[in-house]
Amino acid sequence: MIKQRLNNSKDLLFKNKNIKMFLFFVFLSFLFWLLINLSKEYISSAQFNLTYSNLSKSKVLQNTPLNKLKLEIKAHGFKFLTYQFKRKDININLAYLQHLKNDTYFYLPNSHIRDFQLQFSNDIEVLAVAADTLFFKLTSNAEKKVKITPDLDITFKSGYNLASPIIISSDSVLIQGPKTILDSINEVKTAPIQFNDLAENFEDDVALKISKNPKLNYSLKSVKINITVDKFTETRIVKTFDIINLPKSHTITTIPKEVTVKYQVSLSNFNKVNASMFVIRCDYATSLKDSLNYLIPRLITKPAFVNAVTLTPNRIEYLIKE
């Protein structure tokens, strides 16, 4: 009984070895057959990715062009197999576009077979392009200068403020693109600049918020912004005021004859300020028109580096003789 089982096991093992040997020769035959066939030349179509170049700077594409194109090529089977796994990029030179009408242009791929051939190795022959005509919609590439607006959210530490106006390296950016898109752009903001309790100077390159539309081209991607901060103090001066539009036949006496000008100024500019830098004016005609029995002093001119200016009193009593 045991002997019979041993004989059966040997027979089964022998059969398994024969099956494995058979499968090995089948695989080896298939491999030789595949290599022989892949080494032969074939004429067939293959699909490739499209890229574009040399579009006139005065034009911009309105529509999204084709991104794939089929070519009829003559090549060994190995090449066709390669293109199945890794698709090659081929380029179309848009300098050869021809105008059809209005904003429509066309390109004849089969008239530029040589251009395609130069993008392949010598063992591949480009015979034809499946698409006989490619159409493109182009529009004129306009230019527009647009103001740059800093996106600021700044609070200053108590007693501190801007010592001078914020300086931007460029107040505008030149944008190129379709006129229909440019007409809707009136400003370009910077990336947000946020400070709480700012008490020191800031100078850095700040990115512009640029549209991701590939049809638009910006002359600048960022600007340098300079914010000068200084400690401020509050002070005051006494200043006479002018009266305008008073008839020549009238004599006026005001009470008081001067106003107190209160303002804030940085410590670095404190000694630069003098009373002649302020011009205070009352308009008699305005008071007369509004039936007021007093004059209203208004600040006409002040130094650029002072702020928070207030006038006291804010109304001037007067007596008039005709």
Task: Give the arrangement of secondary structure elements.
Elements: H1 2-38, E1 41-53, E2 59-61, E3 68-76, H2 77-85, E4 89-93, E5 98-101, E6 104-107, H3 113-117, E7 125-129, E8 134-149, E9 152-156, E10 160-162, E11 167-168, E12 172-178, H4 179-182, E13 187-189, E14 193-198, E15 202-207, E16 217-218, E17 222-227, E18 229-240, E19 242-244, E20 251-255, E21 258-266, E22 279-283, H5 284-289, E23 294-295, E24 298-301, E25 306-312, E26 316-321
Parallel strand pairs: 1-4, 8-13, 9-14, 19-22
Antiparallel strand pairs: 1-3, 2-8, 3-7, 5-6, 6-8, 8-12, 10-18, 11-17, 12-16, 15-17, 18-21, 20-26, 21-25, 22-24, 23-26
The helix/strand class is: alpha+beta
Poorly predicted regions are: none
Calculate the mean pLDDT score and round it: 84
Rg result = 42 Å
Key structural traits:
single chain, 322 residues, RNA Polymerase Alpha Subunit, Chain A, domain 2, 3 domains, four-stranded mixed beta sheet, 5 helices, 47% strand
Q: Explain this structure to me?
A:
This protein has 322 residues and is of the alpha+beta class. It folds into three domains: 41-132; 140-227, YbbR-like domain (RNA Polymerase Alpha Subunit, Chain A, domain 2), CATH 2.170.120; 232-321, RNA Polymerase Alpha Subunit, Chain A, domain 2 (Beta Complex). It has five helices and 26 strands. The strands form seven sheets. Strands 2, 5, 6, 8, 12, 13 and 16 form a seven-stranded mixed β-sheet that branches. It has a four-stranded mixed β-sheet with strand order 4-1-3-7. Strands 10-18-21-25 form a four-stranded antiparallel β-sheet, with no helix packed on it. The longest helix is centred in the first third of the chain and has 37 residues, at 2-38.
